[in-house]
Design goal:
signal; 2 domains; mainly alpha; Glycine/betaine ABC transporter substrate-binding protein; ABC_Gly_betaine_transp_sub-bd; transmembrane transporter activity; 168 residues
């Protein structure tokens, strides 16, 4: 048993060395939000330490990253992408085989929407619709907390606020 354990350990320790020979240079995006910084750093660590890659971190954002992949085939790895902000462009790249989705980093989270606290929805079920909120603005404090400037959800929310005439 001891020989088998030693052999397994030797194989496990030598496997990254075998992978290192073929890795080369890899570019990985880093977006400007906290979850992506974590994912990018974990991916960088794995690529460098596990596969011996020479990693270059490329500052980016959703739309520039998708555009760069479409036009230049780089960066090699986009670690976190909000598909609602990438639009049809990402889906076309996926259909063309230019990108491959390897996992869901935020699964089951990462859902965008307009939210109210659970207790408020339970106390006032009419607030579960935008019409209910518009009819009872005092129940939500008359405020709307939007996404940060530059994010896709900010553009969507700003347009919805205007379309629903909520700017008052």
């Amino acid at each position: 048993m001891r020989k088998l354990t030693s052999a397994a350990l030797l194989c496990a320790l030598s496997a990254p060395g075998l992978a290192q020979a073929n890795c080369g240079e890899v570019s990985i995006t880093e977006m400007n939000w906290a979850s992506n910084t974590v994912v990018t750093n974990v991916a960088t660590f794995i690529m460098e330490q596990g596969y011996g890659c020479d990693v270059t971190i490329v500052p980016s954002d959703t739309v520039p990253a998708v555009t760069s992949v479409a036009e230049n085939g780089e960066p090699d790895i986009v670690t976190e992408l909000w598909l609602n902000s990438a639009g049809e462009a990402y889906l076309r790249l996926e259909e063309q085989g230019k990108v491959e989705r390897l996992g869901k980093v935020l699964d089951p989270g990462g859902v965008e929407g307009w939210w109210i606290p659970t207790y408020l929805a339970e106390e006032h079920p009419e607030l579960k619709t935008i019409e209910g909120i518009m009819a009872n603005p005092e129940l939500v404090g008359g405020t709307f907390n939007n996404c940060p400037d530059g994010w896709g959800c900010r553009v969507v929310s700003d347009n919805l606020v205007r379309a629903l005439d909520l700017e008052e």
